[in-house]
Sequence to fold (571 residues):
Amino acid sequence: MTTVVAPAKQLIEDFDPNELVFTRNVRPVELDAEFVGSIKENGLYQPVIAAPHEDGFAIILGNRRAKGSIEAGRNVDLIVRNDLSAEEARIVGQLVENLHRMDMRASEIADAFAQLSIELGLDDEQIATRVAQDPKKVRASIALAAMPKAARSAVDKGTMTLEDAEAIAEFEGDPKAYKRLLETIAKGGTLSWALRKERQKAERAVLREETTRALKSAGVVIVGEPRELSWGGSKEVRLSNLADSDGVALTPENHKSCPGNVAYFNEYQPGDLKATFLCRDPHKYGHQVPFGYRFRSAAQEAAIEAAEQAANERREALKMAAEVRCEFIQELCRSKKVPKGMTRKVLAMLYQAGADESGPEALEFLRVPGDDERADRFGRFIGRMAEARLPLVLLAMVAARGERAMQHVALGHGKKSAAVEWLEFLMDYGYDLTEPEADLIASLRAKIAEAEARAAAKVAEEAEAARQAAAEEPEEQEGEQEDQVPDDEHLEDEGESTGAELVDEQDAETFQEEDDPDAEGSDDHPIAELIRHLEAVADDEPDELNGEAGEGECVVDWEDRYPEISEPIAA
Fold:
């Protein structure tokens, strides 16, 4: 049997194009009247290339020319390539011909590369070798072939590059990210920014997975980042801001046994483990919370609200009690007789706390009329007042100071002892405490006693610590140094120096008393001088001024001695 080998190439002239098998082209066949008219007038300048096919000859190159010839009613010259009968050869041949045409779109090239890759199983390198193209461009084109119409059109129009298409292909394994990027293209958004965000999300996802795996292996419960954590409004608190009941700072190591030990993923956390450790309920587990911790449970919020309401009601009650108290003070300051012992108490209070002579309260307590300058009104008033009643002016000044102390304490601050002293002063002269005042003074006394107990305990603790420190000090050994003084002589020297120091201190105190005319107890002190003057006024004519005063009242009949007391006081 003789085998006839067909030549690699065979030319057939004037072949009827209707007998050709049309294959799928790598680019759409588009005919226009000018193209068809040119073929009808001049025929084809280039032959159609075909390969053997079971139905005759299949077109490899020249689908458009063959169709144009059919439309023009002209035959074609046909070159039969017996060496290109495979589908691979057809596609490669068409690509090689069309790649150099300026009008071939990137999406068409992408479809051809995808056809070689999917239908024929060629990889990127193989395709790039056959069509003499950069492998990177082949990969990007294949990625573009799988994208929706919007992305393909963007590349054809030049608003998106093949490199962008290849970058989008990175996210084919993440359908959500892939969809978001395609939506960015469809909306005309900035693809570079969208790609950057998606890459950051992908990196974050990897970090989260690694962190989750590490925390689970360590038995740590993983939670989401609590809301309001940054400003202290969440129940959970970072371990870095907590300490145990003994004040020791908490760490992931010493806190892992706590039932509230949890962590959340934090990509900004320094170190390899991107997690921030928390305690779910620091109050419940006995931890010390930071100063800015603001979380309150529903029960705590209700308790705080109830306490605030009670405090408001208490302030209102004390405000009304102050009105009653001020009326009592006004009557006391307008008394015709100075109650017994009041002058000494008022002077003592003046010396300890001073007076508030510049404020309007003293004039209100004295009921001084007028609307001009307070100093002028005060000067006219005391100028017309009987000398025996002037201590009541001092009372008004002390009352202004005392009422201000009451206002501060009612608002939750101020000196507690000053408020207690003022209320006790008024009680001594017949004032009956209202219910809120009685509750207030009881509360203040309890707090003062508690503070004094704490202070005493601290003093005792310091004294005990000093005693133990002294007992633990080793005794000095004799003969350690040649010039060391014997213990008995050393103690004797200490005693002598201590006595000298005491003498020096006594001399210093005596010197200060002699040189300080304002020192308490000095005969030249203004308070002492005022007391002597008032005593002299009271003791001037004891037989003539003594009346039938009851217990607690002044024994001096001031009206007999100073008739002007009964006269109206003019401003």
In short: Strands lie at 9-15, 20-21, 48-53, 56-61, 76-81, 221-222, 237-238, 261-265, 275-279. The first helix runs from residue 33 to 42.
